[in-house]
């Protein structure tokens, strides 16, 4: 699918890449930035270099946009490409002999703080360490111990400080679970048996379990040879959720539960309820919605049936409740609006949560899962919000005491701002005017000053 200009959707309008790296200081603030918001907001996304045309939205070089806030001021903005070997020297992830160079990646999906370091992530390869000023340190394989890629959606256990993640492969082992200790040592790697290679973008954790989403977006070597995004939908693969004990001594006890075929890019959060059931909240694409979004972001024609008005090409908030002992899984829709990029208070990761935050094409939504109600903030006509990152208030008692940060970009390409909302009621706290348009991208993090 292409835009009215004939360019791919992700090369045009509010998604179009920017051509260069800039710096700006003393940014204009509308409203009052809370003084305790001292730190950095970094956000990653694909940004092909000038003259490059990528065949898929996911394929552009990672560019991180960074904003430095301190004592109520917005001190600086800058944007930098992640200087991977793919960016600087044209190295390729897959060599002619099908060998993998896991440093030759885009590093374009997420940027996270962990153990006093900052990492840019993309799921097929190694993380890239960045400096707090957005310089690139280099690829990280945790002392040679990481032998797979690293998902862009690791989960930090708020109780232990450990970072749990996984890597998936085109070839066996298709799935490997990893655990980093709180001080950054890769202390566990565990192969997990799945039927094939799929694009597994996210997963979930609870206090005692890891939850896998083994879904029918399968690796296709023929597509890989053609040099295009090597994944396609396969009805024959089926779809299943896997519940795996985190306890290494129970590594073999993975239980799988068949579900209706669907796709999930993003998990909101998961927890165990009082009955020991695993409750997983995510945004789920029905097959036709997935077909539409996959065609859209890959520049492919969508089938006529997929273009039907009822097919939005969006995901919807969904809950699975899995009873590991009884062997049952219950699926239920939590909201009928098309949403993406679910976030939560990271202090609740793997634990029970009351609130999730999502974005639509024009709004930020706060979902109260206890009451079933929701609140909405619309930044304005033609303004498109990105992922809303929850930042807890100092001394917060309530789960929703804090702020949401979202880069909002004008659909007509006229500019961007960092919007700061009060997460308790979605009222507008402040907005920082950015010196340039920030293309719609993927994920970001608030990195508080130590
Ligand atoms: Fe993601």
From TrEMBL:
Keyword terms of this UniProt record: Dioxygenase, Iron, Metal-binding, Oxidoreductase
TM spans (from-to): none
Q: Which InterPro entries match?
A: Carotenoid_Oase
* Name the UniProt record assigns to this protein: Dioxygenase
Q: What is its EC number?
A: 1.13.11.-
Q: Is Metal-binding found in the keyword set?
A: yes
How does the cofactor attach, per the note?
Binds 1 Fe(2+) ion per subunit.
Top-rank taxon of the source lineage equals: Bacteria
Native organism: Actinomadura vinacea
């Amino acid at each position: 699918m292409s835009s009215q200009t004939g360019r791919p959707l992700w090369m045009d309008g509010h998604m179009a890449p920017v051509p260069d790296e800039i710096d700006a200081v003393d940014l204009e603030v509308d409203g009052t930035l809370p003084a305790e918001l001292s730190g950095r907001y970094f956000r990653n996304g694909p940004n092909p270099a000038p003259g490059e045309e990528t065949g898929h939205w996911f394929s552009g070089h990672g560019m991180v946009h960074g904003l430095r806030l301190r004592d109520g001021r917005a001190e600086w903005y800058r944007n930098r490409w992640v200087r991977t070997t793919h960016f600087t020297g044209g190295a390729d992830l897959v060599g002619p002999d099908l060998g993998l160079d896991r440093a030759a990646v885009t590093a374009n999906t997420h940027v996270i703080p962990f153990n006093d370091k900052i990492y840019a992530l993309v799921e097929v390869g190694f993380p890239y360490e960045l400096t707090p000023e957005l310089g690139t340190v280099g690829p990280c394989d945790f002392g040679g111990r990481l032998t797979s890629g690293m998902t862009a959606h690791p989960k930090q256990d708020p109780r232990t400080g450990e970072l749990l993640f996984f890597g998936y492969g085109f070839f066996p082992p298709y799935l490997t679970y990893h655990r980093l200790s709180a001080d950054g040592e890769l202390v566990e790697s565990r192969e997990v048996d799945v039927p094939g290679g799929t694009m597994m973008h996210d997963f979930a954790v609870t206090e005692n379990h890891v939850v896998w989403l083994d879904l029918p977006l399968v690796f296709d070597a023929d597509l890989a040879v053609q040099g295009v995004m090597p994944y396609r939908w396969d009805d024959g693969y089926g779809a299943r959720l896997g519940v795996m004990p985190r306890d290494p001594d129970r590594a073999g006890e993975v239980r799988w539960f068949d579900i209706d075929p669907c796709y999930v890019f993003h998990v909101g959060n998961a927890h165990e309820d009082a009955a020991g059931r695993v409750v997983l909240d995510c945004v789920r694409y029905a097959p036709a919605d997935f077909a539409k979004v996959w065609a859209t972001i890959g520049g492919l024609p969508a089938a006529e049936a997929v273009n039907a008005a009822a097919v939005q090409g969006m995901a919807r908030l969904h809950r699975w409740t899995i009873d590991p002992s009884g062997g049952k899984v219950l699926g239920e829709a939590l909201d009928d609006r098309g949403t993406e990029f679910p976030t939560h208070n990271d202090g609740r990761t793997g634990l029970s949560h009351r609130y999730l935050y999502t974005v639509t094409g024009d709004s930020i939504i706060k979902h109260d899962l206890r009451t079933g109600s929701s609140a909405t903030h619309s930044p304005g006509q033609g303004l498109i919000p990105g992922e809303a990152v929850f930042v807890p208030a100092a001394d917060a008692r309530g789960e929703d005491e804090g702020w949401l940060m979202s880069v909002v970009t004008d659909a007509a390409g006229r500019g961007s701002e960092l919007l700061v909302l009060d997460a308790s009621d979605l009222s507008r706290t402040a907005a920082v005017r950015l010196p340039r348009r920030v293309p719609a991208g993927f994920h970001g993090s608030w990195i508080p000053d130590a």
